[in-house]
Fold each of these.
Amino acid sequence: MTTGSLLVIPIVGAFIGWLTNKIALWMLFHPERSRGPRWLAWQGLIPRRKDQLGRAIARTVTEKLLTTDDLNAMLRGVDLRPYLRELTDTLIERRLTGTIRGYQFIPEPVRNHLVGTIQEIVAERLPARINDISSDLASRFITDLELGRHLEQRIVNWPIEELERVTKAVAGREMRGIEMAGAVLGFLIGAVQVVITLL
């Protein structure tokens, strides 16, 4: 074997290693739909497992990352009284306007006094209920809003092209590193073959 042909072996090995890893990374996202005969169907890993991936991420978020206990702890650190006071004040005024017939004909000072009195009564009783509200709020936030189900649907409905673009934006350097690792490994295997040939 000539020196030139011996040098080609590691170069070809590097190219094969690089190409293999590039194709493997491409196959994470492509093809989006199943291709080929049924017994040899070929589809990208993420498009094929997107539903399971959505369920797994949603379950992890709601059961491990954002639990009811975590939300309760966060809510305990927040003084909800100003928010609830503002909310109840608005609701009281709206409810009085909507339920008392001829409310707009009541003189404004009397209306203001009526609204103010009811708001003060509610505000006095609100602190006693604040802990019950905050502890119940976390579980209702997760269950009533169906946070897990909405998160799962968002992931499942997320276009593969967008998911691929985000993945490349976040981990593009690492993906290129994987491709180069394949080239280096292929080159080393080719070099070992050359050494074995020369022995």
Amino acid sequence: MTSPYRWALTALRDLGLNVFGFLLMFAGAALLGVGVRSGMEKLVGRGHLWLALVFVALAAAGFLLGYAIPPRPDDLLSHLTDAYSWHFLDLLPGVGVNGALGWQCPVDLEGGRRGAPEANS
């Protein structure tokens, strides 16, 4: 049996890792968005409207391609980002994005395996 001190230390470590993963995912998405926007603004500022349109279309295609390619079963980062995205969208009041998309929670927090990704049967 583990001591309460060891349990609290493990819980704090897990909490810290979850907060770090959350911040890392959203910081990465924000930096990507800022990069695309600043690149487009530079092209529009120089008068290259068609090149800006192509740049945005390629960025959108790359973004969508990232979701079109199925993740490897051992790729836990994709499960983590899906779970954070689902819970973030679930927190938005009155919007109901997850229900509108029919997106089920990728992580079962109620079953016997808390926090573990659901097995694909």
Amino acid sequence: MPASVLAKGNAGRHGGGSMSGGKHGSALRQRIEVVEGDITRQTVDAIVNAANTALLGGGGVDGAIHRAAGPELLEECRMLGGCGTGQARITKGYRLPAKWIIHTVGPVWRDGRHGEDDLLRSCYRSCFALVEPHRIRTIAFPSISTGAYGFPMERAARVAVGETKTFLERNTSVENVRLVCFGSTAFQIHGEALEEVFRP
């Protein structure tokens, strides 16, 4: 039975089994969750938006978040002056269940030899850097850069889980980091990445 915490939607967790790595490893793993669902409906302190450099909305996750949050989000984003690849900006959540939206710009995949992995890692690190000053305890991420930007999902999932693990190893205030997957394939890939990163 998988030891990772997996769920579909906002409830119905599945998991269990013994966890190696001692009490610290077990507690750390329980703070990372993979779910299949709609990121705009996640009841967390903050959700992450896979944005473009203009921060003015777009397709995919970005467009869905702007539609769900309402026009006030676009008004605030216009005042931010954009966002560079690998960086992050924070706004209010407006009509979303989440209080905050952290906008980050993922890299466009070229061939894996143009710093794409480092830029994607920077996305997660930049998002996590905003967590503590805003007292965020729960945060949900989409699969950054794996849509129109073409980043291979298996590779992106390993980055997501790895950066989350590294952050939680030094942070004790964040209770839950949720990786929200669109569709069963993404859900399976991220679950496997979670198992791989935590494998003893």
